[in-house]
Design goal:
The chain is an alpha/beta fold. Strands 2-1-5-8 form a four-stranded parallel beta sheet. The protein has 13 helices and eight strands. Bound molecules: iron/sulfur cluster. Iron/sulfur cluster binds next to helix 2.
């Protein structure tokens, strides 16, 4: 199925653009070639766009890890004020892009999202900094999903990040297409098990918000729901939480499944629990029963199809 592409920011060098200090790129095939099928990237290279040229002298963060300076390594030119002014303008420009996330290049003093080296007067470095652009972006868009290319090699982190991105896109689609109380109730209902896989308490809090719309300004409820939803989705969906959701779903088939089918479903959920099969296995079996027994509530659940199956995100978690 051809879905409209999701807009996402990305560090330019990850797409293969030769904008690094040494005139090279840092192409990430997964980002460009796999995610690129579903994502329209908005590339950003802070150092190149600031006009520092390619190739250029390397730079580093120095001083206070909370408030570091950006300084060229050999000539010691302090670029902090120039870069911060540029960052302020660039993140303002990005506000109109409707981004659903950002993938940053790790370790960079401009683009690194976390654990960037900050050099001390002693010459030693502490890995406690953030690239100046990454920090400006995250401060301006605190609810947007963000990740680094290296961390995306971890299947659980990757799945969690992409799930946030697709859920945010569906949230925005709902606001665009049916931004009223009924739209919110439907959205919440269809994301019940997806939210529960991240946070049962988060799901319940969101449920209270949806149940209590009378006398509340709808715009304020949308803002609160969006904020709480993104915070809940950031919590990793662990195996234990997934098993809880799978068992809830299995409960829908109490009457329809034969004793043998019930046993098979329980065996497969157990195998997933023990790490013998990936999540896609019990999910596929439940999807099979949803179709076979025509279970409309579960069919509406995005937990069973949160992102395109071609991304194979549940094949390794
Ligand atoms: S890490 Fe950031 S600043 Fe460096 S080349 Fe890549 S996009 Fe540009």
């Amino acid at each position: 199925m051809d879905l409209p592409k999701i807009k996402m920011g990305v560090s330019s060098c990850l797409l293969g653009e030769k904008v690094r200090y040494d005139g090279q790129a840092k192409l990430d095939h997964y980002v460009r070639d796999t995610l690129g099928h579903y994502v329209e990237f908005v590339p950003v290279c802070p150092e190149f766009e600031l006009g520092l040229g390619v190739p250029r002298e390397t730079m580093r963060l120095v001083g206070d890890p909370e408030n570091p300076r950006l300084v060229t390594t050999k000539t010691k030119v302090d670029l902090t004020e120039r870069m911060l002014a540029w960052c302020g303008q660039r993140v303002s420009d990005l506000e109109g892009e409707g981004l659903c996330g950002f993938i940053f290049k790790s370790k960079s003093p401009s683009s690194g999202m976390e654990r960037v080296k900050v050099y001390q007067a002693s010459g030693m470095a502490v890995k406690k900094g953030r690239g100046l652009f990454a920090k400006a972006f995250m401060d301006r868009f605190p609810l947007l999903p963000v990740e680094e290319e290296g961390r995306l090699n971890d299947p659980a982190i990757r799945e969690n990040f992409i799930e946030q991105v697709f859920t945010l896109q569906r949230w925005r689609d709902m606001l665009r297409n049916q931004g009223d109380a009924a739209g919110l109730v439907k959205f919440h209902s269809e994301h019940k098990y997806l939210l529960m896989a991240h946070s049962v308490s988060g799901y319940r809090e969101l449920g209270r918000l949806v149940a209590d719309l009378k006398g509340v300004k709808l715009a304020a409820a949308f803002v609160a729901y969006h904020e709480q939803m993104m915070k809940a989705l950031r919590l990793q969906a662990t195996v234990k939480k997934q098993v809880n959701v799978l068992q809830h779903m299995a409960g829908y088939f109490k009457r329809q499944l034969s004793a043998d089918e019930k046993q098979e479903l329980q065996e497969i959920i157990g195998q997933y629990h023990q790490g013998l099969v990936p999540l896609i296995v019990p999910i596929t079996l439940i999807n099979h029963y949803v179709r076979k027994y025509d279970e409309p509530y579960l069919a509406s659940q995005f937990y069973l199809h949160p992102h395109p199956i071609e991304l194979q995100l549940r094949n390794r978690v």
